[in-house]
Amino acid sequence: MSTLKAVRGTRDLLPPETELWNFVEETARRVFARYNFGEIRTPIFEDTQLFARGVGEETDIVSKEMYTWEDRARAQSEKAQSLTLRPENTAGVVRAYIEHKLGETGLLQKLYYIGPQFRRERPQKGRYRQFWQIGAEAIGPPSAGSESPLRDAEVLEMLATFLNELGITGWRLEINSVGSATDRPRYVAALREALAPMKHLMCEDNQRRAETNPLRVLDSKDANDQEIIEKLPKIADYLDDASKAHFAAVLAALDACGVKYEVNPRLVRGLDYYTRTTFEFTHGGLGAQNALLGGGRYDGLSEAIGGPKAPGIGFAMGEDRLILTLQSQASWGQQIADEAANTVAKGPHAYIAPMSLEVAPNALELAQKLRGEEFRIEVGEPGLKIRRHFEFAEKLHAKSIVFVGENEVFGKTYSMKPLGSRANIVWNFTDFSKFVSALRGTNRNLVSGP
Questions:
Q1: Does a structural domain hold residue 130?
Q2: For residue 316, which of 41, 135, 303, 414 is within the disulfide window of CB 3.0 to 4.6 Å?
Q3: How does pLDDT run across 424-447, given as a tens digit for each residue?
Q4: Which residues belong to the annotated binding site for L-histidine?
Q5: What is the C-alpha separation between 398 and 344, in angstroms, rounded?
Q6: Known binding positions
Q7: Which residues constitute the domain of residue 139?
């Protein structure tokens, strides 16, 4: 019988690596909270139509990459429902905004999420078929200021702060405006006309996009087509006055906050729902596929999936790529990454050795009290010989071993030996607070006798 392994494009995250993931997520939660974002958790699968109508049927995500299946009908009179594992989370957040009538509060809804997404694409470095994203959306009725360029700049400034606090240096912000719903048709027509005489020279995907959705050609990463793409019309020449003013206001607010950026007239992103501001944060440590995170404004998405007018702006970032970037840096970011990744590798603060089955409840009680003091504790198997307890404690890289035997239970004492110490003596305490203080000292590498 063959050994079962993780499915292609998926992987297991194990300690100590998960400590680094926790560090990234905790930093996100801390930074986003300062900007008054709250967490939302949407279902891991949705009605397929949500993505077909929201993301766009001609996008690569919907046309080629989604995991979709027919859910069995519960009764003969019912029609089977098509369901899809979420390939992205913006559409799900907007669906939740509509379903729960969040717009009726009259307030701007600022929501973030952390969770897995699924796309059936070719696995490569930093890209998996099940991948974890951190994202956020600021959405609401126009009366709440949801269309304001201030919101765009605030989200971008928050992302700059987040990357800086992670310790990621050398990031670049690229930004563009893809115009309003009235600008886009004029530009798409110009693109289609410019592509017509040369589309046969492009890759198969771009030949298809030139017909179905010319904007997607600009988002192509095909190296052989870049010379053609560079000569195509620029969307900045097709923006109306309102779109130009909106974009100028975003840039002015970024200037005021000291957030550096580069205007990239070819940046359109890969989803149909984007309007006006689009952006990417890139980093050289990721190689040719250098996008670290991205997003943009989606002023018509709510209406596209049957909701009220609710302009919004959001972003998503892949945690794998964030962590690869942290690990690629030899500066403060790498130091933080190493510290986080080593937390579990450093082992428990103490290993408790129950010397018999009879005292096992007392060992567990002591472990509970120490965990209440924020110590990381491992409890050994009752009744092992002392030598075996020492072997397990050393394999776990425990800082100290604490013995719980009949003498300790009946004498109400605490016996501890620091591991790695030259001294062979065991310290004995009759006062719990002094025992805790000594244990803390052991974990600060400031070991001294009681």
A1: yes
A2: 135
A3: 678 889 999 999 998 888 766 433
A4: 88-90, 119, 133, 137, 269, 273-274
A5: 10
A6: 88-90, 119, 133, 137, 269, 273-274
A7: 17-182+240-338
